[in-house]
Amino acid sequence: MKKFLILASALSLSACLVAEQKQSEEALMTSSNNLGIDYIEFPATDMMATKAFYAEAFGWQFTDYGPDYASFDKASAGVDGGFTTQTGVQPTGTLAVLYAEDLEAALEKVRGANGEIVQDIFSFPGGRRFHFRDPSGNELAVWTITDEGE
Predict the structure, then answer these.
(1) Three-state secondary structure along 36-102?
(2) pTM to 2 decimals?
(3) Which of 143, 132, 139, 130 minimizes the C-alpha distance to 99?
(4) Within its chain, how far is the Cα of 98 from the centroid?
(5) pLDDT digits (tens, 9 = 90+) for 88-142
(6) Range name among 6-10, 20-24, 87-91, 95-99 with the lowest pLDDT average
(7) How are the residues of the chain apportioned to helix, strand and coil, as percentages rounded to the nearest 5?
(8) Quick one: how far is CA 8 from the chain centroid?
């Protein structure tokens, strides 16, 4: 009986430690100080051909936001993202987009870490974002959702 109680206590302690670690990891992931990749954006030269290719090859589904932007979602592509044919965008790489509750605070943190702001905060349908370069020259963006009333 004593061995059973010791084993039960050890299992209970182990379960508590696992639950505590999981809560800590979840808190870290949702903290506004720790931004994770939320969205992937690809440049495109021909929106119709690009959408047709990904729909046929991989079964992706799209939502159009004007003639220059189409998004895809986790349900069809495994990650949220989009394609853009906006002026000046060249198909040389992928844009990883981070999410921040407080966009202005994220901008100041990037500046404070000596990131190069390449496009200041701008609005788009449903949100606002800015672009920056890291010390290696990689361009990323940070976005936040916009309330419909804004």
Answers:
(1) CEEEEEEECCCHHHHHHHHHHHHCCCCEECCCCEEEECHHHHCCCEEEECCCCCCCCCCEEEEECCC
(2) 0.58
(3) 143
(4) 4
(5) 666 667 888 989 999 999 999 999 988 899 999 999 989 999 999 887 687 889 9
(6) 6-10
(7) 35, 30, 35
(8) 42
Chain-centre distance of CA 93, in angstroms? 16
Distance from C-alpha of 114 to C-alpha of 14, rounded to nearest angstrom: 43
Spatial contact of 83 and 42, defined as CB atoms under 8 Å apart: yes
Short-list 146, 80, 89, CA closest to 119: 89
Nearest to 42 by CA among 53, 33, 31: 53
- CB atoms closer than 10 angstroms to residue 40: 15
Q: Contact at 8 Å (CB) between 95 and 80?
A: no
Q: How many CB atoms lie within 10 A of CB 77?
A: 18
